[in-house]
Structure formats: C-alpha cells, structure tokens
Amino acid sequence: MGEQKRKEDAKQSSFIFQQKNYTFMLIGMAFITLGFILMAGGGSDDPTVFNPEIYSWRRIRLAPALILIGFGIEVYAILAKPTKKQ
Fold this sequence. Notes:
Blueprint: H1 2-11, H2 19-39, H3 57-79
Helix pairs in contact: 2-3
C-alpha cells in the first residue's frame, strides 16, 4: 500500500507556485533591482569635497519606496493562492 501511494504522489508532482506567482516574483525583483540602481552613486572622487547629490530626492525617497514596493510584491507572490485545476 505504501509503495502505491508513493507512486501516485510521484505522478502528481508539480511546482509549488504557478506561472502567475513567478510573474509577480519577477516583477518584484525588477522593482527591488531598480530601487538599488537608483540608490547607487552620488559619491565624490575627492574625499575632502562634500557632494550634496547624496541627499537627492531620488536616493532618499524614490529608491527606498521602490524597494519596499518590490518586497510587498514579493510577499504577495509567495502568499497568492494557486488556482485549482478542474
């Protein structure tokens, strides 16, 4: 009986997530990557010179917001209930 159940389970093996989940995961990863790219830069070549560009709106507000939105999309992608096949 145990052997038969194991064979049935092997036949029904499938991915944990569906295509919708993976699509949302890729979108979330794109948001996170874009946020980190926007946050990068703003340094100075000369360490004795202050560069006020480090405090730009893009680095202080936009980039962290995009990263948080991306993490929110990732959580949704993981917790989204898969549709049942009929």
